[in-house]
């Protein structure tokens, strides 16, 4: 699963793909059927890259991509409009280590909505983009 370039914009529903950058912000395209283009000013809007999003866990944060992989492997995915008890039971399966006091039903709904958006995209089955050579070199020196 390749989530590079996919972002969530605060105050805007759905997910967006970064398609460009200008002096004041980013040019985004919605991932829904309308393919609406949007220019977002970085000083007034918050962007969250799906690659960087984590969920509170009991023993450390859980990466969103790992939760998506477990949802992908699960047999049935509940509707995002399901009640909180159903969502909590499902999240105990796909993210058993999530912090039940800090992860709210609204968070679980948002994750399932995002999953339903990206599961139809070609990048859903792509391998994650490789790190640039300079980043790989930095990681290998940090491990020593």
Automatic annotation (TrEMBL):
Domain DUF5606 span(s) in chain numbering: 3-50
Pfam families found in the cross-reference section: DUF5606, DUF6852
Domain (DUF6852): residue spans on this chain: 53-118
Gene3D superfamilies tied to this protein: 1.10.10.1650, 2.30.30.730
Top-level taxonomic group: Bacteria
Name used for this protein in its record: Uncharacterized protein
Lineage: Bacteria, Pseudomonadati, Bacteroidota, Sphingobacteriia, Sphingobacteriales
């Amino acid at each position: 699963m390749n989530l590079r370039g996919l972002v969530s914009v605060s105050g805007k529903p759905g997910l967006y793909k970064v398609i460009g950058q200008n002096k004041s912000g980013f040019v985004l395209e919605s991932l829904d059927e309308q393919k609406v283009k949007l220019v977002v000013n970085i000083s007034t809007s918050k962007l969250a890259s799906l690659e960087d999003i984590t969920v509170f866990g009991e023993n450390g944060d859980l990466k969103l991509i790992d939760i998506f992989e477990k949802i992908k492997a699960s047999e049935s995915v509940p509707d995002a409009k399901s009640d909180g008890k159903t969502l909590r039971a499902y999240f105990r399966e796909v993210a058993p280590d999530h912090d039940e006091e800090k992860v709210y039903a609204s968070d679980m709904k948002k994750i399932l909505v995002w999953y339903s958006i990206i599961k139809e995209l070609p990048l859903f089955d792509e391998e994650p983009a490789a790190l640039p050579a300079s980043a790989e070199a930095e990681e290998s020196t940090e491990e020593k």
